[in-house]
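Inputs:
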Amino acid sequence: MHPPAFPLLSVQDLKAYFYMDEGVVKAVDGVSFDVYPGQVVGIVGESGCGKSVTMKAILQILEPGGKIVSGKVQLRVRRAGRPDLDTGGPNSAEELLDLTRLHPNSKLMRKIRGAEIALIPQEPMAAFSPVHTVGSQIMEAILLHNKVSKAEARQRAIDAFRAVGISMPEQRIDAYSWELSGGLRQRAIIAMALSCNPRLLIADEPTTAIDVTTQAQILRLLRDLQREKDTAIIFITHDLGVIAQMAHYVVVMYLGRVMEQGPVNEIFANPRHPYTQALLKSIPSVQSTPRVRLPTISGSIPHPFNRPKGCPFHPRCTQFIRGVCDSAAPELLAVGKDHLASCFLYQSQEVTA
Amino acid sequence: MTTPKPASSPRQVLLEVRHLKKYFPIYKGLMRKVVNQVRAVDDVSFFVRQGETLGLVGESGCGKTTASRCILRALTPTSGEILFREADGTVTDLAKLDRRGLARFRPQMQMIFQDPFASLNPRMTIFDIVSEPLYVHGMRSRAERTEKVAELLRLVGLRPEYMQRYPHAFSGGQRQRIGIARALALRPRLVVADEPVSALDVSVQAQVLNLMLELQEALSLTYLFVAHDLSVVKHISDRVCVMYVGKIVETAPTLELFAAPRHPYTAALLAAVPVPDPQRRTAIQELPGEVASPANPPSGCYFHPRCQFAVERCRQESPQLEEIAPDHFVSCHRAAELSLPGAVSHV
Ligand SMILES: Nc1ncnc2c1ncn2[C@@H]1O[C@H](COP(=O)(O)OP(=O)(O)OP(=O)(O)O)[C@@H](O)[C@H]1O
Ligand SMILES: Nc1ncnc2c1ncn2[C@@H]1O[C@H](COP(=O)(O)OP(=O)(O)OP(=O)(O)O)[C@@H](O)[C@H]1O
Ligand code: SF4
Ligand code: SF4
Ligand SMILES: [Mg+2]
Ligand SMILES: [Mg+2]
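Outputs:
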């Protein structure tokens, strides 16, 4: 796939910290990546590496105590009234907005959430309120972002349900979220996210809590929608199988930082960062030989208050260079075409000393 | 109907489950009248040989945990037999025993739980947690227990110095090691592990799986390994049982099951697993519909509403588990004639 010349979203050196009584959690500590129109960017990393906080920072929905400390989140937005004019590059109908400059509760930020960027949250129960029907909540979102009548909003909600493959949408729209099975609820969440035609969909672990056959249905649905509507997707998961099947471009995170990023084939066939290499080797696969020892990554992920100095992966890295990796953090630098790694193995030491 | 009979093998059968059923009543109204039943485990038969790992796999709600809890007699089965062979060769039906009768068997069967965060009491030290079963089963000397706990911690790759710490000081993987040390304290002959690595990070999963393989070798343990992740089950098991809505649909040696499944549901499960290789980007295979409710299962074969091979007979008649090759059991009317794809083979 050839990405268009201009990214839709450009995250630049984003830092988001939580200030707590016990200390500061550097949840996101310098993350950069771009998302192009129609591209699926997979974000992968183990629990606590900052995937969800990165997305919450982009959308400015960090929980209390959380603050964007630095960085930019540049989004190409459609100028009001001209959503039809999208030519794939910044033009007269579009403008570049740094979302970090907007007040989280500003009218514009609220409009961007939903109409430009929609989120499928990691906790599916958080997506819908249990006291209103799913249909009324989708209609509310539609009415917030569009000048349409109630009847039309209802019809759009029904259409959205049908588009995500929910049978009997006219009846199901009046159900409460807790009345729906896991698979149906996930489809309803996707319908809500897509109801306002966002250009970017952020899917935070959309299939982690559901069974593998339902997961296949949801992945298929997302893939079809992305192809039909050319929606860009940021797809967050810790499942490397899902990443391999869904993403065009992959960002590998560890302890709040990007370790490596590159085209999906490069990441899987030619990983450069020791963490990516180790992670790929340590997963059992349905294709691998049973009952053999798996290569492992020694140790465990450090507690957020005990961040190692220097390269965050150094206490677990087999290629650790004493005096280098534990003194300064490596920069994210090019190791190939569109392929970047943050590791001293690929940086001349004079530059970083 | 026949139950799977173990083919002649040098290894003895440690556990044989025959026609196990566990129905949960559904009550309604003030009088708590029973209006229906959840057939959580619905006529399940399988066996586990001494020293092997039997993987039990299936989607959420198919009855894996209920079946395991019946075997450990944490639940009383509705009907069926649970035949357990002791070291001296005597075989006892655990399903028929009461509390007192079971006491002798408790130390011989232990469980490893899914959630290493919820399964350890936060107010107990590691010493208390690991030594509790020793104390309950008569080891009264503290010095003796301390020595034994140190030995167990070393066995699972933890430093004995950690003994006086509390669970919160440990990572998920370390807590799961503590859970394993506790389970092994009484030298059980059967270890039932219910989703032991599902809550762990991928880099830590591999460590725990390796540990379980090593311990099995060193202590000649027998595992019943319950999980929903097919890759993990394939990795650890000698043989695999696939469950669907309370029933076993297929049991086979691991490689055979993954390379040449004979039940349409097994094939559909394998096809749904995303392969971690972007060069093999398949059209994602989709199994239509949803898992049937065990409170209201379909007629005939429970899988028929979703099965692309269903014929009239499947709607009428419930298929029985039959041995179609040595150690390979399938419950499908069309098992003999269908040719189904397996997981893409290793290159
Ligand atoms: N509201 C909060 N207050 C304090 N710390 C937080 C908060 N939310 C997240 N964190 C911390 O920020 C770090 C990153 O968390 P985040 O939720 O982004 O991880 P993640 O990569 O999404 O993990 P998972 O795979 O478990 O969802 C973690 O150390 C977490 O404990
Ligand atoms: N105590 C109970 N009372 C009523 N129904 C129950 C009870 N325990 C389990 N069930 C039902 O029995 C069925 C099997 O549940 P079980 O927990 O054994 O499934 P499982 O295969 O372990 O699922 P999971 O993968 O989600 O752990 C489910 O439909 C469940 O709702
Ligand atoms: S910077 Fe050093 S410690 Fe970090 S991944 Fe590279 S070699 Fe390993
Ligand atoms: S018995 Fe019939 S419906 Fe059931 S799995 Fe076999 S072919 Fe499909
Ligand atoms: Mg998260
Ligand atoms: Mg269970």
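Remarks. The radius of gyration of chain B is 21 Å. The first helix of chain B runs from residue 64 to 71.
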